[in-house]
Amino acid sequence: MRVLVVDDEVSLAETLRRGLRAEGFVVAVAHDGVEGLDLAASGDFDVIVLDIMLPGRNGYEVVRELRQRRIWTPVLMLSAKDGDYDMVDAFDLGADDYLTKPFSQVVLTARLRALQRRGATERPPVITVGDLSLDPGRHRVQRGQQHIELTPREFAVLEYLMRHCGDVVSKTEILRSVWDTNYAGDTNVVEIYIGYLRRKIDTPFGRNSIETVRGVGYRLEET
Fold first, then answer.
1. Helices 188-197 and 152-163, interaxial angle, to 10°?
2. How far apart are CA 33 and CA 20, in angstroms?
3. pTM of the model
4. pLDDT at 58
5. 2-118 and 127-220: identical CATH topology
6. pLDDT of residue 138
7. Which residues of the chain, if any, have pLDDT below 70?
8. CA gap 7, 14 in Å, rounded
9. Where are the domains of the chain?
10. Exposure string for 84-109, b = 16+ CB within 10 A, e = fewer
11. DSSP 16
């Protein structure tokens, strides 16, 4: 699961990042509403954890802007206030869940998993590119009627490519989404996983759906 945490309390944001990474999530962090909105608008996250009191643009403004742009990524809002009106305002503007500080990491993780299962309201349950289909909920990939076994990392790389079908995506973009925003290893690991995918989703079927754009990155095309 890809999670965006937007909170101006640096120590709290870092604690959340470490805790969620330990649960196997890929986590990006922003410390103000402007940067948070820019990242959230990319649509590359499964869930957004959004504090209400933020510099730049507050959480209410961020979630309202996302919904106006028809970005339906589930949003869990955080607040130091436990007033009913704050909670109602958050839901009215388009938030999906609400948690009052301080909170348990266990509870936050459970809430995020529940939001992931529910998914974005207008996100298609199955992503298709030609006869290639990927079901995020069932963690299943098929070419036509043929099931393809992928490792979790291969699945995540393919999902990213399919969500950006037709666009050229760089190794850095794939690393930030699939590995970690702070990944500092060799970017050639992406090339290795692209090779794994080609041998599984293309070669056995006589296809060439993953194109290498030299010096730029990769593009998944319908074949």
1. 90
2. 21
3. 0.56
4. 92
5. no
6. 66
7. 43, 81-86, 92, 119-125, 137-138, 180-184
8. 10
9. 2-118, 127-220
10. eebbebbeebbbbbbbeeeeeeeebb
11. H
pLDDT in tens, 20-74: 998 889 999 999 999 999 999 886 799 999 999 999 999 989 988 888 777 888 9
pLDDT for 140: 84
Cα–Cα distance for residue pair 174/20, rounded to 1 Å: 19
Amino acid at 139: H
Tokens describing residue 152: 């979790």
Amino acid identity of residue 40, one-letter, is: A
* Neighbouring-strand partners of residue 28: 4
Query: Could you write out the DSSP letters of every residue in 109-149?
Result: HHHHHHHHHH--TTS-SSEEETTEEEETTTTEEEETTEEE-
127-220 — its CATH code?
A: 1.10.10.10
> What amino acid occupies position 167?
D
Name the one residue in this structure whose structure tokens are 């948690």. Answer: 99
H-helix or E-strand spanning residue 107 = helix 105-118
- CATH of range 2-118; options 3.30.160.20, 3.30.43.10, 3.40.50.720, 3.40.50.2300: 3.40.50.2300
Q: Do 175 and 190 contact (CB within 8 A), yes or no?
A: yes
Tell me the average pLDDT of the chain: 87
Residue pair 104/173 in contact (Cβ under 8 Å)? The answer is no
**Adjacency order of strands within the sheet including 26-30:** 26-30, 2-6, 47-51, 75-79, 97-100
Percentages helix, strand, coil for the chain (3-state, rounded to 5) are 40, 20, 35
Amino acid 222: pLDDT: 84
